[in-house]
């Protein structure tokens, strides 16, 4: 990456961070949207509002039930670099509802990790700097070194196991069907956040 590009990305990240919110603020926002039968993002459709309501329920469940192994906890607690984990999301995103509570569980274990959240549609320049295979896929976690403002790593939009499942299905069928999306939700429920924990621990190495 050219120096000029790096400087530009740092400026974009800095601008987005100034508009970011904490996970607890995000959960309160989603709760309010459910009451208002609304959603984040540029499109305010009934379908997306319904997804927001469903995701609020999913996040409530994961906030209570995600468990981490002793080994994962030890690895997370031993991480010794001040970082910000900036996540790009929207309240209607199904993958985000499964992933974001897990990120929170990890971040809560280490006060050197500052977990911040921004909305995709309000941060075009940021999203377009961190595309996945050319697409504006969310959630996307950007791991930033607080001392240098350098981007150390990224994660998302899905844990690596789910990404493989998606890529395999797309290569066979050309696109994701509603049936596959239901299968993916079942996989998330069965996995209980463990693949996400594993990927996040790898980020810290």
From TrEMBL:
This is Thioredoxin family protein. It comes from Winogradskyella alexanderae. SUPFAM superfamilies: Thioredoxin-like. InterPro entries: Thioredoxin-like_sf (IPR036249). Pfam families: Thioredoxin_9.
